[in-house]
Amino acid sequence: MASRDEAKKLGLTDLEYDEILKILGREPNYLELTLYSVMWSEHCSYKNSKVVLKRLPTEGPQVLQGPGENAGIVDIGENLAIVMKVESHNHPSAVEPYQGAATGAGGVIRDIFAMGARPIALLNSLRFGSLDNPRAKFLFKGAVAGIGDYGNVIGIPTIGGEVYFDDAYKENPLVNAMCVGIIRHDKIVRGKAAGIGNSVMVVGAATGRDGMHGASFASGELSDDNPDQGSPMQVGDPFKEKQLMEACLELLEKEWVIGVQDMGAAGVVSSTCETAARAGSGIELDVALVHQRDENMKPYEIMISESQERMLVIVEKGHEDDVKQIFKKWGLEAEKFGTVTDDGMLRILENGKVVGEVPAKSLAEGVPIVKRESKRPSYLDNLTVDISKLPEPDDLNEVLLKLFDLPNIASKAYVYNQFDQTAGTDTVVSPGSDAAVLRIKGSKKGIAVSIDGNGYYCYLDPYEGGKQVVAEAARNLVVTGAKPLALTDGLNFGNPEKPEVYYQFEECIKGISEASKDLGIPVISGNVSFYNEGKESTVYPTPIIGMVGVLEDVNKHCTMEFKKSGDLVVLLGENTDEIGGSVYLKEILNIVGGPAPRLNLDDELNVQKCCLKAIELGLVNSAHDVSDGGLAVALAECCIAGKLGFEGEIEADIRPDVLLFGEGQSRIILSLSEENFEALNQLSKEMNVKLSVLGKVKPDIINVRIRRNGSVAGEINVSLGKITEVSKNAIKRRVENVR
């Protein structure tokens, strides 16, 4: 029997060990204790977050599957649905960035085709320390290569993402992968072990000792005191994943398939107990029947191994050979190793002898739920910035060029050029725009997909930051002409046992929930990643929002680049004097301060609806939201993308640098022919949205004059070629040490 001391070594608390004794009515053996240790880890159980996650809106007429399955599903009409999920792989990527990022992509891909959907796109959200740091540079290059190689080989286009650098992530990078798939309503499969006597099979790659205690590893801080650090790494094989995907999609066409589940975190134990718990059944399995690539594996090693490219399949009794034939065709193994039972137990045998037996539901759902103490961090009291005391820059041109030389503002082409963006031939808008756009074969419809986060805003104000990350993701869809439908969240935070961290988590969820409800965008899937800390630092609270929207006619999509010299350039929304939380304040003036800009959700919704309607009516030629870097950066991005310049004047009673570089919310830049202006002006009035003319599209030069009381108070006048060159080379020169 396993002792309380052994339980502690496996990461279980006294409370949890006592609960295990209560459930079993006896002491567990080592195998049983190991099963509880991985399934009751934060990574698998969400024991620190469930009580807060219940506040998120998860329902809507468009939702076909919300949280609780491998992935969420949202209806897009015509009997078609989008399946999507975001997953983190932070701790593995901190140890071995190439495999950590690659297997993160592999795991979320399996979540999609486990539902019966064909994966059609990958996205990613990445956070690293400053590129001046050699380790950060190593992690960045490894993670990008891992994501690219895995997606490129399997033939799924990587169509979007975001990359952010800050020393808050120098010890603990964040690597979040998102996958999107498409499915017909009548082909949806769920992960349930239903039907007494039906067969439970393991298919795909052989099981080895890689990925041991991976779930537990992801549920602790990165430090020398984390005992599992040496053994958690999974090793991915994208060729085998491609075979597995095609075999599973062929299999799932068969009506005798009952359920499918990815063997992700915690491997065999998680996939078996979760499918049994969903169906209210049990499973009896023999670990000796699992195909193994390492010799003399112990039962607990087979149960918790996180070897990649494996799936659990439940099929009607009598169809085992049919499954084997399909997987043999694709060069893979398939073996029956268990049976669905009616007693609710997960019973583990080795060569026919019972070696462990626990209630399946207790593993999947029985962890004692914790409501942690929450305490507002004291640093939030010292963030106020007095604009009147800020030094005014002598040269606004220099500021703009410095901003575009920052990796967080500069072009991310260095990253996305390493990805296959067009595999599958459905990519309409590639990375580099506000959101990616995909066509739907056989339909006029298209979808737009975005992934966004702003951990710095959430650090300065977790509640406002949570609201803003949802609004930003939605705005990025809207400017393409897509109506936002649903989101998936990747919630990355520090140690929840620290009251200040738990406060950040609760407040971010409050903000996400409020924005999701007000904008009508339910949360259909997601992932929580706690304990993102090192010896010296904790990451910013970093919720990542992946979002999908639908275009009724994909040919009417809109992009950000200015397209025609002489077009009017206008602003939807209102400029403000908010400078807190801006890149300008932090990186140019070296002030970490707030508050983060405020978001009025009614104004945001009106701006988004107005933009969508303008695109639908064909009034505008381009659309781009104002975000990091403010108005001047957004204008310059439109110019760089379209290889055209801009000239205009803005009359405002706001300091020029604050007006140009402040990051006030709910603003969208549009360009349009002059003859369409009156129609747009009327539309904006009807929707109660402020519309102001900024200037016109011109060749070659970006010239913005700020007037106060009739006089020029500040001016930007830079060549398009110069700012394009700075933006293009900012990341490359740091990574490759070139000038």
Written account of the structure:
The chain has 25 helices and 26 strands. It is an alpha+beta fold. β1 (about 65) and β2 form a beta hairpin. The longest helix has 21 residues, at about 135-155.
List key phrases describing it.
739 residues, alpha+beta, 60s Ribosomal Protein L30, Chain: A, Phosphoribosyl-aminoimidazole Synthetase, Chain A, domain 2, 3 domains, 7-stranded mixed sheet, 35% helix
End-to-end gap: 64 Å
Strand order of the largest sheet: 8-10-7-11-9-12-13
Binned, the helix content reads: 25-40%
Quickly count the helices.
Answer: 25
Taking pLDDT < 50 over at least 5 consecutive residues as the criterion, the unreliable ranges are 214-219, 224-230
Q: Which fold does the CATH topology of the largest domain refer to?
A: 60s Ribosomal Protein L30, Chain: A
User: Which radius of gyration do the C-alpha atoms yield?
Assistant: 26 Å
- Oligomeric form: single chain
Largest sheet: 7 strands, mixed
Count of folded domains: 3
Shape: globular
What is the β-strand count? 26
CATH class value of the largest domain: Alpha Beta
Tell me the name of the CATH homologous superfamily of the largest domain: PurM-like, N-terminal domain
CATH architecture of the largest domain: 2-Layer Sandwich
Mean pLDDT: 94
Strand content: 15-25%
Estimated structural class: alpha+beta
